[in-house]
């Protein structure tokens, strides 16, 4: 399997069950998760997420609000489909945010 190949629906469901708090958007081919984290700490966390994102050459959509940090992942180069690359980055995002003791919101 190539990392950028679209996953079948059952594979997306299986991979989501292995990650805490990530969900599939019911209207779009993307996975997402929201973290509750203090605003200025979230800015640092975003910078730290960019390290694995750049390494994977896969960049999340990010929405930063007061005490809420939201990540959405889809593989644009696969036609906005969910791929294994999305799950690899989701795992990395969880590891980074764990350092900031972010709670899922």
Automatic annotation (TrEMBL):
Pfam families: Pterin_4a. One of its GO terms (biological process) is tetrahydrobiopterin biosynthetic process. Keywords: Lyase. This is Putative pterin-4-alpha-carbinolamine dehydratase. It is an enzyme of class 4 (lyase). Its EC number is 4.2.1.96. It catalyses: (4aS,6R)-4a-hydroxy-L-erythro-5,6,7,8-tetrahydrobiopterin = (6R)-L-erythro-6,7-dihydrobiopterin + H2O. Belongs to the pterin-4-alpha-carbinolamine dehydratase family. PANTHER family: PTERIN-4-ALPHA-CARBINOLAMINE DEHYDRATASE. It comes from the Bacteria. One of its GO terms (molecular function) is 4-alpha-hydroxytetrahydrobiopterin dehydratase activity.
